[in-house]
């Protein structure tokens, strides 16, 4: 597990989530692991952070958020030819959302609530700098 934590520390992650409780849980855990990450509360904020941070390793996003949802944000990234690994984390189990995420080329789709160790393993496995 230590090797995975070291890989995680070498990455720069962007979490896009509007639920304060979940942001706090993720932030607390990543802070304890000494991980480099940014947070945004909606897709519009996330797009600005992507433009300002060309060294991002990955985006982890919710779907339902105010201003711009996660799927709209992913579409915008694809239109701008920004090709980062993307994990969607959502409570949506409807095929409509899952299929749309797959159409947009997301790397994985996690259902909330999720197991944090599996979550870290997934992030590290999708790291392109390996």
Q: Explain this structure to me?
A:
- The chain is an alpha/beta fold.
- It is 46% helix and 18% strand.
- The chain is built from six helices and five strands, in the order H-E-H-E-H-E-H-E-H-E-H.
- Helix 1 crosses helix 6 and helix 3 packs parallel to helix 4.
- It is globular and about 35 Å long.
Order of helices and strands: HEHEHEHEHEH
Strand order of the largest sheet: 2-1-3-4-5
C-alpha end-to-end distance: 16 Å
Q: What fraction of residues sit in β-strands? A: 15-25%
Average pLDDT, rounded to a whole number, is 90
Annotation field: number of helices: 6
Q: Please give the share of residues in helix.
A: 40-55%
According to DSSP, the number of beta strands is: 5
As residue ranges, the low-confidence spans are: none
Radius of gyration: 14 Å
Shape: globular
The largest sheet, given as strand count, sense and whether it forms a barrel, is: 5 strands, parallel
Query: Strand pairing plus helix content: what structural class?
Result: alpha/beta
Q: Which features would summarize this protein structure in a list?
A:
6 helices, globular, alpha/beta, 130 residues, 5 strands, five-stranded parallel β-sheet
Give a quick summary of the entry:
This protein is an alpha/beta fold and 130 residues long. It is 46% helix and 18% strand. Strands 2-1-3-4-5 form a five-stranded parallel β-sheet, with helices on both faces.
What's the layout of helices and strands?
Elements: H1 2-9, E1 12-16, H2 20-32, E2 36-40, H3 43-52, E3 58-61, H4 70-79, E4 86-90, H5 95-103, E5 108-111, H6 116-125
Parallel strand pairs: 1-2, 1-3, 3-4, 4-5
Helix pairs in contact: 1-6, 3-4
